[in-house]
Design goal:
189 residues; mainly alpha; Hypothetical Protein Ta1238, Chain: A; 5 helices; nucleotide-binding
């Protein structure tokens, strides 16, 4: 099987149900999700030996990111059932709560970094925010499954919480932004 088809040489690509320009809002949205998925794979590889539970969660997230891209790739959604649902968001919220409880209390902004795993999760967080922005723009012109937007919004929070927990588990302190005021509320006992 040949990997190249030459079908896109004129700047068009296929969606499910039609062809569009390669810079179409839908292609930009699911293409940014694909970029995020590659960074998630890199983070999972870095976590595999050190934090295997996290690596497994990241692999699960990679599958869900493919589902997000699939839901956005329909030129015509008539009769199509979407793959993303609120259950994926609920799962992320459980993981976020767990990781938030593991990390030290957050009072000020922190610098992305610490361990290699944490640094990669922060890269995932920022690419996820960009993917979310692309999806918001796309959905203004081409309504699609709103669970994708909700999932990406929660996923960036997951990456932040997981990055902080990874640092805590691996013995790396978060580095506070030197000129940050106290911007986060203290936890209630």
């Amino acid at each position: 099987m040949k990997i190249y088809t030459r079908a896109g040489d004129e700047g068009k690509t296929s969606l499910i149900g039609g062809r569009v320009a390669k810079d179409d809002l839908r292609v930009e949205a699911y293409g940014t999700i694909d970029e995020l998925n590659a960074f998630v794979g890199l983070a999972a590889a870095a976590a595999a030996d050190k934090l295997p539970e996290l690596a497994q969660q990241l692999t699960d997230i990679q599958h869900e990111l493919f589902d997000c891209g699939s839901d956005l790739a329909y030129a015509n959604k008539d009769g199509v059932s979407c793959k993303m649902s609120s259950a994926a968001v609920d799962k992320l919220e459980g993981w976020i709560d767990q990781y938030t409880d593991e990390a030290p209390e957050l009072v000020r902004f922190i610098l992305p970094g610490g361990s290699d795993v944490s640094a990669l999760l922060h890269v995932c967080r920022t690419v996820c925010r960009r993917a979310e922005r692309r999806v918001v723009t796309m959905m203004a012109a081409h309504p699609s499954n709103p669970e994708v937007r909700r999932y990406l919004n929660r996923l960036s929070d997951y990456f932040f919480a997981a990055a902080r927990a990874a640092n805590a588990r691996l013995g790396f302190p978060d580095v506070e932004y030197a000129r940050s005021a106290e911007v986060f509320r203290k936890r209630k006992p």
